[in-house]
Write a structure and sequence with these properties.
By secondary structure, the protein is of the alpha/beta class. The protein is about 50% helix and about 10% strand. The protein has a single domain, classed as 3-Layer(aba) Sandwich (Rossmann fold). β4, α7 and β5 form a beta-alpha-beta unit.
């Protein structure tokens, strides 16, 4: 199982259109059926605002949605404190509340996170300016991240 971030869902939808890449989307549908792909509720809500057609496809394919449990909420608070976010003062160049919930979901489920947020070659010294992959790399967070293309390349699947 892998947790998908909004950025990867939208990246896939925008760059590999269903009409031009039907075998990819058939495979993704199979991955959804097998619950190899899950999404935190906050990410699905973001998708609904950004791409209603993509949201419609995901819900029609019965994508498993992960609600925020007590464990996820507590982990999100721990990560938020770890990176120094105080009073919901998120930095515009760093993670936001939904990003932290998405990271916490992957960590609690102990699975890989698929995100297309840009990697920061040198993580900012100010930890609340970090993007998802950089927060995931923190020693006490440690969530493995890949992007959308790495996800389907890693499957070894051949799309014909």
């Amino acid at each position: 199982m892998r947790v998908f971030d909004t950025s990867s869902i939208i990246h896939g939808w925008d760059n590999y259109p269903l009409k031009q890449f039907p075998p990819l989307w058939d495979w993704l549908s199979d991955q959804i059926d097998a619950e190899e792909i899950v999404v935190p509720k906050v990410a699905l809500i973001e998708v609904s605002h950004i791409s209603p057609d993509c949201h419609k496809w995901l819900t029609a394919n019965q994508l498993k949605v992960i609600d925020v449990s007590n464990d996820i909420a507590n982990e999100a608070i721990r990560i938020k404190n770890l990176i120094g976010i105080v009073n919901d003062n998120y930095h515009p160049k760093g993670v936001d509340e939904n990003d932290i919930i998405i990271i916490a979901t992957a960590r609690i489920l102990d699975v890989e996170l698929v995100t297309d947020e840009g990697r920061q070659a040198k993580p900012p010294d100010v930890t609340h300016k970090r993007k998802i992959p950089s927060v995931c790399d923190i020693k006490t967070v440690k969530v493995d991240c890949i992007d959308f293309v790495e996800y389907f390349k890693g499957s070894g699947e051949v799309f014909k």
